[in-house]
Amino acid sequence: MSSTRKNNDDPWSSSSDEDDDDDSDDENVELDAETPFYSICTYCNSDAPKFDTLALALEYDVTNYGFDLLGSGALVSSNDEDDFFEGAIVLINKCRQFVKDNQVKFSGIELGQELNNYLKGHKVDDDGDAQYYKPVLDDDSMLMCIDELCELKRQTEQESQADTSAAGNNKSDPESDDKMEKLQAKISMLEEQLSRAKGYIAALANDDDDDDNSMSDDSRSGDDGDKKQASSAKQTNKKPDNDTYYFSSYSHTGIHETMLRDTVRTAAYEEAILSNADSLFRDKVVLDIGCGTGVLSLFCAKAGAKQVIAVDNSDIIKQAREIVELNGYSHVVTCVRGKCEDLIANNALPLNGKTVDIIVSEWMGYALFFETMLPSVMVARDALMTPETGSMFPNVAKIFIEGCNETERLDYWNDVHGLNMAPMKERMVSELTQDAHVEIVSDENIVTDRKEIITFDLNTCKDADLDFEVPFDLHLRDDDKSRNELQIHSLVISFDIDFAVPNTKSVQFSTGCQSTPTHWKQTQLWFDPVHNCPVLNREAGDSMKGVFRMKRNVKNHRAIDMSVVWEVGREAGSGWER
Asked: Which of 45, 52, 210, 358 has its CA 20 to 30 A from that of 312?
């Protein structure tokens, strides 16, 4: 009998300590890091959303009210900072007073339009504006950051290459525009590098020692005296438990191109949505979480959705908004930047008290749960989805396990251009058993049946369900009986996704080895084929039984730990025989 356990006690190190002390020396006013920003159009509401930055507060007004303070002709040019400083104070207070006086009469886009109309008559040096030097909103962070507002205004002017107070007929300089785009791209890159650097510094400052952040082999002896080796999957590079790091990774074009070019993934969503236009999407309110480029939101709009709210917390949301506009669906799709949980907590989604009929999201990661995005989607489901009739889309996810034999990969080292490089085989195995590997595994190397080990009803599953332990039982495949005895070098984890809402057309796709490869590939958990791995004998009727465990990493909630306990045996007259 052989018994191996893959056990991850602490495979990933993490840190979320990114506290930055921002001291602003603006006329001896020190901003409290806890003081939030309120948008112009919402501050009077008792449940008004709060924002961490000025830019997010201004963007919220543009997205939800059609009011652009930076683009307003009432805001003086940034060229004269003294005039801008005084003019901005007056304008902010004037806008806040208007919203305060008219919030009952108008709401949403209508409020923004009325505010825009009101400001058409605004004059910078109006004698009647003296009252607006007094703050309308106590502790107004926006008034304390006029210098930052001036810089944002300057950026807006540079991007448009026109004075916002002019008629708008000046031609922009293409060469200057190109330089500006390159500068902005460089700034974004530097900001991301800074974010990562902060995360690594926080990780280095972690009080945990290196031993706590790495895995060691766990060995024990069984009844027969054989050594039972336990290998561990681990992440060798320390990464901070940092949502900023996670979301910034989705700011790169490459990752979106990879996902869009995954025709299995994208075509399945397209078919599932468009083929159920009448039965599911027409005249419905849809929430798209992690919208990326907005492709799923546009599918929903094409399917006749009444309103689509596209949410993403990376700066790809800017391109998503432009793509929606370019394709003529800006009257249906609203793009909102922010972390889903925060937007819900701050009542910052443009729902006006409504619930959503459908939640569309492509939340899946390697081995289904890597990156752990599903909990965020479940928060939205529980808070916003219409009870009884609402549905997640997709609505079912399944995880599978199967056994793999890669003898040719191992034997390669026995003869490399006529040279025996067998020592490399042991080195390779040592490396393979240290990590869970994401690779495309050929179906030709799969030697057992593919077994479903767990199913998730995404409309009803709970957060606790995502950490699980389940039994499995694998047998050699019946379609290849040429080899009687086979080693199992690795276990392969994959998943299937179902769009199977009752009374609709069902669509499904698979990431298994038997299907067209996807960008998720498959996840391999390697045994040690040199020293100790499962061996199944067909004639003896052997099978491999065990327990598979998956859980979120304690220190980095976006990572997952997987472990396997197994044994080989067969059913005998007296029961299970090892």
From this structure: 45
Residue pair 454/494 in contact by the 8 Å Cβ criterion: no
User: Which pLDDT tens digit goes with each residue over 383-414?
Assistant: 999 999 999 999 999 999 999 999 999 999 99
- pLDDT score at 126: 60
- Residues labelled as active-site residues: 362, 371
User: Angle at which helices 174-204 and 146-160 pack, to 10 degrees?
Assistant: 140
Alpha helices, DSSP H, located in 311-362: 317-326, 340-345
Tell me the C-alpha distance between 569 and 474, whole Å.
11
Cβ atoms of residues 446 and 477 within 8 Å: yes
Global pTM value: 0.63
Determine contact, residues 361/309, Cβ cutoff 8 Å: no
User: Facing residues of 456 across strands?
Assistant: 397
Burial of residue 526 (number of CB atoms within 10 Å: 0-12, 13-18, 19+): buried
Q: What secondary structure does DSSP assign to 263-303, as a single string?
A: HHHHHHHHHHHHTTIIIIITT-EEEEES-TTSHHHHHHHHT
Q: CB count, 10 Å around CB of 532?
A: 17
If pLDDT is split at 50, 70 and 90, which confidence band does 55 have?
A: confident
Q: Is residue 42 within 8 Å of 235, Cβ to Cβ?
A: no
Task: Give the whole-angstrom CA distance, residue 4 versus residue 232.
Answer: 11
Sign (positive or negative) of CA dihedral 439, 442, 448, 450: positive
- Minimum mean pLDDT range among 84-88, 231-235, 427-431, 502-506: 231-235
- Assign 223 a pLDDT band (cuts: 50, 70, 90): very low
CA distance 198 to 215: 25
| SS3 state at 172 | coil
- Residue 397 contacts residue 496 (beta carbons within 8 Å): yes
* Cα Rg of the chain, angstroms: 29
Tens digit of each residue's pLDDT (9 = 90 or more) over 453-510: 999 999 999 999 999 999 999 999 988 777 889 999 999 999 999 999 999 999 999 9
CA 63 and chain centroid, separation: 21
Q: Which residues contact 212 (CB under 8 A, 6 or more apart)?
A: 10, 13
381: phi then psi, degrees, rounded to nearest 5: -60, -50
| Cα–Cα separations (whole angstroms), residue 326 to 156, 298, 320, 364, 467 | 20, 11, 10, 28, 42
Average pLDDT value for residue range 33-62 = 81
Q: Find out whether 122 and 69 touch, Cβ atoms under 8 Å.
A: no
Among the listed residues 222, 322, 274, 287, the one whose alpha carbon sits nearest the alpha carbon of residue 1: 222
Per-residue exposure over 394-408, b if at least 16 CB sit within 10 Å of its own CB, e if not: bbbbbbbbbbbbbee
β-bridge pairing 535-537 and 485-487 = antiparallel
Q: Which of 366, 333, 521 is nearest to 442 (CA)?
A: 521
| Share of residues in the chain with pLDDT > 70 (%) | 76
Longest dimension (CA), the chain: 101
